[in-house]
Design a protein that fits this description.
Strand content: 15-25%
CATH topology of the largest domain: Rossmann fold
CATH architecture of the largest domain: 3-Layer(aba) Sandwich
CATH superfamily of the largest domain: Alpha/Beta hydrolase fold, catalytic domain
Radius of gyration: 20 Å
Protein name: Acetoin dehydrogenase dihydrolipoyllysine-residue acetyltransferase subunit
Strand order of the largest sheet: 11-13-12-14-15-18-19
Number of domains: 2
Organism: Taklimakanibacter albus
Order of helices and strands: EEEEEEEEEEHHEEEHEHEHHHHEEHEEHH
Number of strands: 19
């Protein structure tokens, strides 16, 4: 089935965008992350990045056309595949998600990598990947200062973690940290449930998404790398929102002092007790077919029928070269021993004094919700009935409201 790369929404309340550059033509093979087009509004131009792989089988617009926002910009499929009606194509997924699915629609801003021409030239000249930057320019654009700051920073581990601006704003940023097997793009559908004015960013944990694996990828070193990466991004004060392993990392970062964590929202957090479904971790990492992967990923949901096919396809595509899964297997060996978590965040929660919420699904089959007991009195606990390991998906409106309340409670 053909997948559509959509025309991004280039500003609030805008319904059209001009095609100012097309970097592909019919028959071209497109890889995930390739720059396929540039569009512009009255105020700015934006680059459109592919979040799926395939052959360009349909280009409904030509250079200079005025395109409709969220309409198909191009269709990807198999060579020779015909699409009778572009509206029948599924919107392309936003990225691989083993611990959180991607909704099959595109949220405003999906696929946009904003950067100035000078920043692009500097990055290319120095072999830097713009996808690893959080921009400090207008609407989160990557500008010259961002490139020069990274070039002046000391060497970081084996390589820098991938960052991406998810939404522009003002004030202290909200940084989202995904769970084991997922990546930062998995948060994009959830952002539609937030009306915060703060800028929002995501990062890929080591051996996830665009971040390289680390030789010392146990829990403590992972936390140290993430804390250092946040500091190197110039983030002195942050609100952290984490899911599963990412929630545990977020909590442990508070012990580092830098950056200053103004609020914590922990969704289905690891690290509150020893138990985890080790069979799920092993089965997920070993699965090589849609049939096998669908059986394991279904366990993330209370209602297994909620598992989207796009999530399965994206996960398989992300691990096609074997490197991603291999890195995650090495990380899992340092984080878990069978069905035992080899780390705890209870000390961090006891010492953290800022606004903090823990949100768990009562039907969580991966990390038992019963472990979220005996929390410090200042930590708010929300137990959601009929929800599994993905509260931010299965109860997105409620979780969105709780995240906003936590951030705003920090003042």
């Amino acid at each position: 089935m053909a997948e559509a790369i959509l025309v991004p929404q280039v500003g609030q309340d805008l319904t059209e965008a001009k095609i100012v550059a097309l970097h592909v033509k019919l028959g071209d093979k497109v890889k995930k992350g390739d720059l396929v087009a540039e569009v512009e509004s009255e105020k700015a131009s934006f680059e459109v990045e592919a979040f799926a792989e395939g052959t360009v089988i349909h280009l409904p617009y030509k250079l200079g056309d005025i395109a409709t926002v969220l309409a198909p910009l191009l269709l990807l499929g198999e060579p020779g595949e015909a699409v009778a009606d572009a509206r029948d194509a599924a919107p392309a997924v936003v990225g691989p998600t083993a611990a959180m699915p991607v909704a099959p629609q595109s949220a405003p801003g999906d696929g946009i990598l904003r950067s100035s021409p000078l920043a692009r030239r500097l990055a290319a000249r120095n072999g830097l990947d713009l996808r690893r930057f959080a921009g400090s320019g207008p609407k989160g654009a990557i500008i010259r200062r961002d490139i020069e700051t990274r070039m002046a920073a000391p060497a970081f581990g084996t390589a820098a973690l991938a960052f991406r601006g998810l939404k522009a704003g003002t004030g202290d940023p909200v940084v989202f940290i995904h769970g084991f097997g997922s990546d930062l793009s998995s948060w994009r559908p959830f952002l539609s449930h937030l009306t915060l004015a703060n800028p929002m960013q995501g990062l890929d944990l080591p051996a996830h998404g665009a971040s390289p694996p680390l030789d010392d990828a146990d829990f403590e070193s992972t936390v140290a790398h993430v804390a250092q990466a946040l500091t190197e991004q110039g983030l002195d004060n942050v609100h952290l929102v984490g899911h599963s392993l990412g929630a545990a990392v977020a909590a442990a970062i508070t012990l580092h002092g830098k950056p200053r964590v103004r609020s914590l929202t922990l969704i289905a957090p690891a690290g509150l007790g020893p138990r985890i479904d080790g069979d799920f971790i092993a089965g997920f990492l070993a699965a090589q077919s849609e049939a096998a992967l669908s059986l394991w990923l279904g366990g993330l949901f209370h209602d297994r029928a909620s598992l989207p096919q796009a999530m399965i396809r994206a996960t398989l595509a992300a691990r096609a070269d074997g490197q991603l899964a291999a890195g995650q297997k090495r990380a899992a060996a340092r984080l878990f021993e069978g069905s035992t978590q080899l780390f705890s965040i209870r000390e961090a929660l006891a010492l953290y004094a800022g606004p903090c919420r823990v949100i768990v699904g009562i039907e969580d089959a991966i990390i038992p919700a019963a472990q979220a007991t005996g929390l410090p009195g200042h930590v708010a606990l929300h137990r959601l009935a009929g929800v599994g390991h993905l509260p931010q998906v299965e109860a997105a409106p409620l979780v969105g409201r709780l995240v906003m309340e936590t951030v705003r409670a920090a003042g």
